[in-house]
Write a structure and sequence with these properties.
Length: about 270
């Protein structure tokens, strides 16, 4: 979180919009000053700086997408896929709300890099596929510390609107048709693994995010705030997103993620023993 920034960033349907264009998850820039001190890098370079964990390098996929799932039609090259990907994502929603949020360049690479980074402790700001919400992150006093102001939730309305209006089955079908592009972008991160395995792993990680009762106290830092409770401060960036968007929004996103997970795994061939 940062009192000097817009307050938060969205991780793109990461799982919904960023992932396969479904809705969106929010990324708070509580360490903006530290990120700003690092030189800006292109998406591919930034994702290379966030190597995937060793267990990505499985010899056989755990959750394979069969030939019937992947597109049989010719797909554009990854570096020329933005127009087709954007058109496909916009078709998943009933109006142009998503278009106002989505960054139109390197869409698949941004999605893959963002999803891969969610279980980690840091993420490069320049890889995020969605634009930043307007307004500033706000806090209010609480027993000598601070808590997040309820006013922040209003800035997420458009993102939640997009998430609410995307059908998980349609999003999963779109993702499977375009899967070769996602797999290529994942390999471009320097991994030897299978992106769909990583996607399911990340969804499960987000579903395991805590569901705190009541407000979480914050401590001011030189720039921004940190959780007073170290258990929450040590969470991954993805799980921090989930708890910082508020109890109601977290429940809605988890329901979408469960439906998306089910749709992605439906009709896939069984992994080899």
């Amino acid at each position: 979180m940062s009192s000097q920034s817009s307050g938060s960033k969205w991780l793109a349907g990461v799982l919904i919009v960023a992932i396969v264009g479904l809705g969106a998850v929010f990324l708070y820039r509580e360490k903006q000053a530290r990120d700003a001190a690092q030189p800006s890098q292109p998406v591919a370079a930034a994702s290379t700086a966030l190597p995937s964990a060793p267990f990505h390098d499985a010899a056989l996929p755990q959750h394979p997408i069969g030939p019937a799932g992947a597109s049989t039609a010719a797909l554009p090259a990854l570096d020329q896929s933005d127009d087709a990907i954007l058109a496909g994502l916009l078709a998943l929603t009933s109006d142009g709300a998503l278009k106002t949020l989505l960054r139109p360049d390197a869409i698949v690479s941004r999605m893959v890099s963002t999803i891969d980074a969610l279980p980690k402790q840091t993420i490069g700001m320049n890889i995020l596929p969605l634009r930043t919400p307007t307004g500033r992150f706000q806090v209010q006093p609480d027993d000598g510390m601070f808590v997040e102001s309820k006013k922040n939730l209003e800035r997420y309305d458009t993102y939640m609107y997009v998430a609410d209006h995307v059908n998980p089955k349609a999003a999963a079908a779109w993702y499977k048709r375009n899967y070769p592009l996602f797999q290529q972008a994942y390999r471009d991160l320097g991994t030897n693994g299978y992106f769909n395995d990583r996607l399911i792993e990340v969804i499960d990680h987000l579903l395991d995010a805590p569901e705190p009762k009541g407000n979480l106290q914050l401590l001011p830092e030189k720039v921004g705030y940190v959780y007073a409770n170290p258990t929450y401060e040590q969470l991954s960036v993805g799980q921090k997103f989930m708890i910082r968007i508020g109890t109601e929004n977290e429940a809605k996103l988890k329901a979408k993620l469960r439906a998306l997970r089910e749709a992605v795994l439906a009709d896939n061939p069984q992994a080899a023993p």
